[in-house]
Amino acid sequence: METYFKKIGIEFDCQQCGKCCDTDGYVFVSVREAGRMARYLSLSRKEFLEQFTRKVKGNLVFKSGVREKCLFLEKGKCRVYSVRPAQCRDFPYWEEHFDDKKEIQAAQKYCQGLKAPWSSVA
Ligand code: SF4
Ligand code: SF4
């Protein structure tokens, strides 16, 4: 995915600003990821699920509201960074960003590490 981004001229260099954790949207988490995070926080998976997650249309997401910062963001840093969900680890290499200028532009509004030369993407 990273290679594909480079091929179409999109550059990414994370500036560690934490803004992607403080923007619109759900953070999806799998049961397996929840288990890993629970162990990291010395909780049972059940405790973790009750405390930090809820279901949206059958999907497990963090309890933070759609327009709220992630509940694991503290002083601009992720407090579960080493066990964060794939959605967080993979950003900005998400499928919806491929070949979709609007999605990339939306991400660029908060991510200063994302650069796209539109002339080569159009
Ligand atoms: S889990 Fe961590 S990396 Fe993912 S959105 Fe929350 S604070 Fe950001
Ligand atoms: S918004 Fe972009 S630059 Fe800032 S931490 Fe997130 S990925 Fe890195």
- Class derived from helix and strand content: alpha+beta
Q: What spatial form do the alpha-carbon principal axes imply?
A: elongated
Q: Helical proportion?
A: 25-40%
Put simply, the count of helices is 6
Which ions and ligands are bound to the chains? iron/sulfur cluster
Poorly predicted ranges = none
How many strands appear in the DSSP assignment? 6
| Biggest sheet record | 2 strands, antiparallel
Strand order of the largest sheet: 1-6
Number of domains: 1
Output the helix-strand order.
HEHHEEEEHHEH
Give me the oligomer status.
single chain
Structure description:
The protein is α+β, with helices and mostly antiparallel strands and 122 residues long. The protein has one domain. The chain is built from six helices and six strands; from the N terminus they run H-E-H-H-E-E-E-E-H-H-E-H. The chain has a two-stranded antiparallel ribbon with strand order 1-6. Strands 2-3 form a two-stranded antiparallel ribbon. The longest helix has 10 residues, at 31-40. The relative contact order is 0.23. One iron/sulfur cluster (SF4) binds next to loops.
